[in-house]
Specification:
single chain, alpha/beta, globular, binds zinc ion
Amino acid sequence: LRALAQEPEVVAIGETGLDFHRNLSPRQEQERAFREHLRLGVEMDLPVVVHCRDAYKEAVAIMGEEGARRGVMHCFSGNVENAREALHLGFYLSIAGPITYPKSDRLRDIVRFLPLDRLLVETDCPFLAPQAIRGKRNEPAFVYHVVRECAAIKGVSMDRMAEAVAQNSRELFGSLFLNGAERAGSRPLSD
Ligand SMILES: [Zn+2]
């Protein structure tokens, strides 16, 4: 991973993280891999894309211990306290299709709480299609529904919300928005 992460196309480390819902690997093993990926992000000065399910307390504690300060909690599903801790470290929170589901009041509270300059949106394609097309295969274009819902919750225009998430994406994944030559020159490549 260290060698691959030096390629100019690489803009982040991840997804990585903890999933105590599915527990596809033993917890200790998940934590060990997560720490190594976080260290790599710090070492390479790359943001980290964090997957987390039923493990926010543990994940945020590990992120703090490993000095991770740049990244995104993808498809955020934690509580306000978890959100506060992740923001405190410097992370963004990413909101996906579930924000449009009738039962997602807790997630709507999170969006209400989130500053506009820390909010990202995503599809998690092919999963988590927004309410209007729920049950179908999700597509990047459907992220429109997520932006619209977030705008309504925050009481801002669609344009303002779209501008905010675009700006936040540029700040977090800056080199993704460069062309190939600019990218190659933007990071020191080791031999
Ligand atoms: Zn994930």
